[in-house]
Amino acid sequence: MKQSCLFGAMCAAAIGLVMSTAVNAVVIHESATLGPTGVTFGFGIGDPTFLGSRFSITDTVSVDHVGGHLVRIEGNEGDNIFAAIISLNSSTALPTGSPFSTSELMASTIFPIPSLSNDVLTPLSVTLAPGDYALIFGSDLFGANGTGAMPNNNSDISGSASYFRWNGDVWLNGGFDSTRFVVTGTVVPIPAAVWLFGSGLLGLVGMARRKRAA
Length: 214
Hints:
Radius of gyration: 23 Å
Shape: globular
CATH topology: Jelly Rolls
Structural class: alpha+beta
Number of domains: 1
Distance between the termini: 17 Å
Largest sheet: 6 strands, antiparallel
């Protein structure tokens, strides 16, 4: 009876440790910390310019929102832009499509942006395997028909700010900075140490049972 209780307690501890590895929604990518909002200037988004920010992940991620510091340019047809997540061939690569290929496009959505800049998040659901990706904002695709801008009064985060752009013909590195792109989601890593811990518990229980039987 005591052995069964010990086994149950040890298993419960192992299960609890595995469950504790689940992480609630966190920031997956943040290119810059937020600067002053309520401004009306920035690097343009629309026909023909798209702006993008690269990011890399080492665990499987369930993305739930994307966004950044954005503002609408008044006097245009619409108030929405698109957000797209694409896969990249490396952490420094540019998209392979013109502008996108079906193989690299992971998910997209359109959403309205404010007439005075603000830190905007919009729902976007996609599961990403470990690898290299980019978040891109633009217009005149996926039903988006507005024109916007990304204020450049933010503070780039070292190691996280990796920008590129579409000029209507080709993808180019850089050309802008101090813009805020954000991706949030849920990461559920299962470290090897957890499995080793669980395997070790089962091994100890097995040894105890064999000793008892002997």
